[in-house]
From TrEMBL:
The lineage of its organism: Bacteria, Pseudomonadati, Bacteroidota, Flavobacteriia, Flavobacteriales. Keywords: Hydrolase, Metal-binding. It comes from Chryseobacterium geocarposphaerae. PANTHER family: PERSULFIDE DIOXYGENASE ETHE1 (PTHR43084), PERSULFIDE DIOXYGENASE ETHE1, MITOCHONDRIAL (PTHR43084:SF1). GO terms for molecular function: hydrolase activity; metal ion binding; sulfur dioxygenase activity. The keyword RNA-binding does not apply. It comes from the Bacteria. This is Glyoxylase-like metal-dependent hydrolase (Beta-lactamase superfamily II). The keyword DNA damage does not apply. PROSITE patterns: RHODANESE_3 (PS50206). Residues 270-361, 374-462 form the Rhodanese domain.
Length: 470
């Protein structure tokens, strides 16, 4: 038996590849499934099942892609109601993958259909649990997401179900079991996940706050619900895609891999319904970009910030990318359900410049320069999360988190210059591109962000009520 975790850092997502005696099961796959198929073919094995731990909110699963390409059966846990052919298992059902067994353990709480899969090896011994968003390393799944799809599923109700699922279904299992969760640190599906992506169940019983033996149900609910931030707006839309189905990725790629010369690109983008998305890194974007572009770099938490900052999942998108990364951009958009890419700038930004088209730039300054000009009259905005800001920030800075910037343009002055920064320069360039779209011109971004600011020993402070108002 082989269990392999396939981790995708930009989504903090883990899929699992279980192989035994020529048969394979895939758990919680991403939408771009060719790597799973290639891995099975390399081992001369057939993909028999695609197991889903729940209807995911933070990505579009590859279950339908795998079924179409391999004829594998899709398996959900109890109460799931997919709008396509799938096996909806009962609690305790057993599935055979080669000489291994997969047992269904219904663990509602994150969602109603949430299911943990207990893996038995070829000797019939319990080996691991694939827990989805029920149990993370250091955390458990947040219970407030399902209510955005079904208002009857309140966070209190689901939190109480999760309390019982953990104590009655998970904690009685043997300590030696390996815990394989669906996410690690960085995912919005929990609030305090570890950077580690596997652990033993015994160690989690000792260290995970949600598994304390002496915790009452009310204490569990209170601790679980405290400190939850608003989930990204695209989450409910991804849930519905996973329930109802979606276009196959091959069709999305055919539509998106449409090379546009500069003149054609310009004509298409004159339509207000079309968004220019530039996926180059912040430094390249700052040096020159197509006017009106939104910058979200591929080399960062790309899919998460696309979901946060592009409100319409059906938005028509044309791409500006580094040459050779056009398909990667389309695929990574599709992972969170943004399937309406209609083309890309052929030859990248260089072709736009060579065609003598209008360009814009974004000013960046070093932390050293910020230290030189720092003073009481300088207006500084911190676009990190509230929690980051409250931990430590430049003294006098105003906190406007990036995911709220579209609602607070009146916080930024148009008659005075100002500075923006984030942790390292990725989010602040997203903010810079949005400010440029909305007519702000006299501002600069701090290259390297707060990381470089601390190195240069600018005045800093922790939470200060007068400078935080969002």
């Amino acid at each position: 038996m082989k269990i392999e975790q396939i981790y995708t850092g930009c989504l903090s997502h883990a899929a699992y590849f279980l192989e035994s005696d020529g048969e394979v099961a895939i758990f919680d796959p991403l939408r771009d499934v060719d790597s799973y198929i290639s891995k099975a073919e390399a081992g001369q094995a057939k993909i028999k099942y695609v197991f889903e731990t729940h209807f995911h909110a933070d990505f579009v699963s590859g279950h339908l892609e795998l079924k179409a390409k391999t004829e594998a059966d899709i398996v959900f846990g109890p109460t799931a109601k997919p709008s396509y052919e799938a096996i909806v298992a009962d609690d305790g059902d057993i599935f055979y993958v080669g000489k291994c067994m997969v047992k269904v353990i219904h663990t509602p709480g994150h969602t109603m259909e949430s299911t943990t899969y207990l893996i038995f090896d070829e000797n019939g011994d319990q080996s691991a649990i694939i827990t989805g968003d029920t149990l993370f390393i250091g955390d458990v799944g947040r219970p407030d997401l399902a209510q955005h799809v079904n208002s009857e599923l309140t966070q209190d109700r689901l939190a109480r179900l999760l309390f019982h699922s953990l104590r009655e279904k998970i904690m009685p299992l043997d300590d030696h079991l390996i815990v394989y969760p669906n996410h690690g640190a960085g995912s919005a599906c929990g609030k305090m996940m570890s950077k580690e992506t596997t652990d033993t169940l015994g160690h989690q019983k000792e260290t995970n706050y949600a598994l304390r033996k002496d915790m009452t149900e009310d204490e569990f609910v209170s601790e679980l619900l405290s400190g939850l931030t608003d989930p990204p707006g695209y989450f409910p839309k991804n849930v519905l895609l996973n329930i109802n189905g979606y276009d196959h990725l091959d069709a999305v790629l055919i539509k998106g891999k449409n090379p546009l010369i500069a003149d054609h690109f310009l004509k298409i983008t004159e339509d207000d319904d079309v968004l220019i998305l530039d996926t180059r890194n912040a430094s390249a974007f700052a040096q020159g970009f197509v006017p009106g572009s939104l910058n979200i770099g591929l080399d960062g938490s790309f899919a998460n910030w696309v979901g946060e900052m592009i409100s319409d999942i059906n938005q028509k998108i044309v791409l500006v990318t580094d040459e050779g990364r056009e398909e990667e951009s389309i695929v990574r958009l599709s992972r969170v359900g943004y399937d309406n890419t209609i083309g890309y700038l052929k030859g990248g930004f260089e072709s736009w410049k060579n065609a003598n088209k209008k360009i814009e730039t974004a000013e960046r300054i070093s932390a050293e320069k910020l230290k030189e000009i720092y003073g009481e009259s300088l207006i500084i905005f911190d676009v990190r999360k509230n929690s980051e800001f409250e931990s430590e920030h430049v003294a006098g800075a105003i906190n406007v988190p990036l995911n709220k910037i579209n609602f607070h343009f009146d916080s930024f002055p148009k008659d005075r210059s100002f500075i923006i920064y984030c942790a390292g320069g990725y989010r602040s360039m997203i903010a810079a591109s949005i400010l440029k779209q909305n007519g702000f011109k006299d501002f600069a971004d701090v290259e390297g962000g707060f990381t470089e600011i601390k190195k240069n020993d600018l005045p800093r402070t922790a939470y200060s009520a007068p400078t935080t108002f969002l």
